[in-house]
Amino acid sequence: MVAYLGDMGEEQSAADAPVDRVPLRTIAREWTRLGCIGFGGPPTHISLLRRLCVEEHEWLGANEFEDGIAATNLLPGPASTQLAIFCAWRLRGAAGAVLGGVCFILPGLVLILGLSAVFLASHPPTPVLGAAAGAGAAVPAVALVAAWGLAPPSWRRVHSRRAARARWIAYGCAGAAAAATVGQLLVLVLLACGAIEVVARSTSSRHASARGVLPAMAVHSAAMGGLAALAFVAIKVGALSYGGGFVIVPLMQHDAVVTYHWMSGAQFLNAVALGQVTPGPVVQTVAVVGYAAAGIAGGLLAAAVAFAPSFVFVLAGGPRFDRIRRNTAVQSFFAGAGPAVIGAIAGSALPLGLELGHLWQLAVLAAAMLWLFVARRGVVSALCVMGSIGIVAGAVGAPVR
Questions:
Q1: Tell me, what DSSP letter sits at residue 207?
Q2: Cα–Cα–Cα angle for 283, 332, 68, nearest 5°?
Q3: The model's pTM
Q4: What does the pLDDT read at residue 56?
Q5: Which long-range contacts (CB under 8 A, 24 or more apart) does 362-371 make?
Q6: Residue 18: which region, alpha, beta or left (left: phi > 0; alpha: psi -120 to 50)?
Q7: C-beta atoms surrounding 2 within 10 Å
Q8: Helix, strand, coil: what percent of the chain each, to 5?
Q9: So where are the chain's domains?
Q10: Over the stretch 3-59, which tens digit does the pLDDT of each residue have?
Q11: CA 187 to chain centre
């Protein structure tokens, strides 16, 4: 989840003042292009940003770009979106950050809201239902492969001491159990794991104050309703989600399906699938939930609330990223929250799998597991292939509703 870089000495760092040398129209054009072609999640986004900013135009140095990756990986929320905002901030300050971030987010948001109108319609055509049922059946496998990809680098960062490795395993199990059983409390579990690791690594009593964050978060969204509840769910996604983008799934599922009944379990699977196959950040999934809750206005509200913290974090923290990245308490917190996030992503496969309503979907899930784990093919292709199988299944009379 978190990348740590060594001391860069006197080299230029992410804490330097932003550079004012690239026209805003160039940022608007290039960041819109990235938002249109950014299929494949954070790895693709990072690669595209590196090619644009470091290799093609040399707007940023390689070390500065890597510092930006390390710093944004320390922040809650969608790291690749924050990296896009950070790069634009380095080129044109606050104006560039806001413009670049909006242009990066907007293409995928427009597309996913359009698809939401189709997939969440009252009576969608059978091919649409088939595609949704097929792609949705693959979502539990996507959750497992996402966790599988995050686990090895996180484990390698663990100290060789037996106690540290035991805590890593315990945090992962806690996250998995929370996601599988009490998804609405997952945020508290993530915060608790991070706080416990801060205390465990602490050498002075002042670090123990991190435990005080937990009571402040003990507000349950069930006390709210309507747009306030939607905004609360979205802020959890944008400001309190640590690690890979897929951690938003267990954060949202219980609220969207069980607490507020904005959508059925099958529709939530469709929302996750749409977030994976559209360009831009996976956090766009929150817009589908918002659309189910309150139409286009709800989708726009959920997206705005979910992405707003990313702009705040970069604009307020950009000049201090280097100090944040080197802060031992911050590193300790993410050393605890990180494995809990990985466990939560893996644990979310259970409630997602239980939402499959047809036997043929189990065969599609098995095929998706083989596609991702044995053939080692990509997530987007898996969802597209399984969606195609769903269309065929619907055409031959298999149940798709």
A1: G
A2: 50
A3: 0.81
A4: 93
A5: 362/137, 364/134, 364/137, 364/138, 364/389, 364/390, 365/137, 365/138, 365/140, 365/141, 367/138, 368/137, 368/138, 368/141, 368/142, 369/141, 369/144, 371/138, 371/141
A6: beta
A7: 21
A8: 80, 0, 20
A9: 24-106, 109-121+130-393
A10: 433 333 434 444 445 555 799 999 999 999 999 999 878 888 999 999 999 999 999
A11: 14
